[in-house]
Amino acid sequence: MREKVRDINSARRGGPPSRSQPPRRLAAIVAGDIAGYSRLMELDEEETHERVKSIQRDLIEPTIAEHHGRLVKTTGDGFFAVFDSPVEAVRCGIVIQQNMFGRNALLEREQRIEYRIGVNLGDVIIEATDIYGDGVNIASRLESIAEPGEVYISGGIYEQIKNKLVCGYESLGDRRVKNITDPVRVYRVLADPAALNRRRRRENVLIFSLGIILMGIGASALWHWLPVLDVNLRHQISSSVSSPTPDLPMPQSPAMKQALQQAQPSHSAAPSVQQGLPSAQQAPPLTPPAPAIPATKQAALPTTSPAQQMRPIVEPEMNLLRGGAFMMGSNDDPTEKPVHQVTIKPFAISRYPVSIREWNQCAAAKSCAFTATGNDDAPVTNVSWTDAKQFAAWLTETTHKSYRLPSEAEWEYAARGGTQTRYWWGDEFQQGMANCKNCADVVGAEQPIKVGSFKPNPFGLYDMGGSVDQWVEDCWHKSYHGAALDGSAWTEADCGSHVIRSGSWKNDSRYVRSANRDSYDTNVRYPTHGFRVALSP
Question: How far apart are the first and last CA of the chain?
Answer without folding.
Answer: 64
